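Sequence, C-alpha cells reproduced for reference:
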Amino acid sequence: MDLSNHFKSIDNFNRYLLTFKNTAEKVSRRTMIINTKLEVLAIYSKEVKLIVKTIKNNANLINFLNMEDFTYFEHTMIYGSLLKYLDSFEQIKHYLRILSLKTDNWATCDNLPFKDLNKEYDNELSLLSLEYLRSGHPFQRRIGFNILFSLINIKDYNQLTFSVLNDFEYEDEYYVNMMIGWLLCELYIKDQVGTLNYLKTNKLNKQATNMFIQKCRDSFRVSDQDKAMLLKYKK
C-alpha cells in the first residue's frame, strides 16, 4: 500500500494523524501529565513509533521536516524521533533548533534520540550541549542536559558535566532542576567516585540537590548504605 500521499502536505498528514486520536478521557489525562499548551491527541507510544517508521519509509524526510507544523504535541514527538535518520550533524543541529524553539514540555525534550546518533557526533554533541545550556529558554536548557545524559558512559564527558553544573546554582525552573537531579543520580550510579568528588564542593541549588538525592533513594541501583549516606548532602 502506497502511503506517500499522507506525507506530501501537512493537511494530508494531519488527517492521517487524527485517525490515531485517543478518547477524550485519555487526552485530558495526558495533557495534564505533560503540561503542554499544544493540543494533545494522546496517541499511544507504539503508534507514534509506527508513524515515525512509516514516514521514514514513505516520505522525503527533509520535505516532511520543512513543513514545520507543531499544532499537536505528537508533531513534536514525531519530529524529534526523525532527527536520528538525518544524514549529517549539521542537519540534526538545524532541525533540532527549529523543534527546540517550539518545545514547551519535558516529554518532547526527553524523547530526543541523542543516544541513538552516530558515535562520531559525540564531540559535536558535547559542544552543542553547552550552547543549549546557555539558553534563556528553560526547555532548551533541559535539552542541553539531555545531551549530556546521552554521553554519560564516557568519563571524559562526565568531567564536562561536573564543570558546568555549578553554573546552575540559581536555576529556578522546575523542569530544568528535575533533569539536573536525574542526570546527577545517573552519574552517581555510573561514576560514583567522580560524583562524590563533585558533591564535596558543589554549588547546586536546593531543589536540584534534593531531587538528586530523592532519585537516588528511589533507585534500586543504589545501595541502602549509599542512600543513607547521601542524606548528608541534603539542603
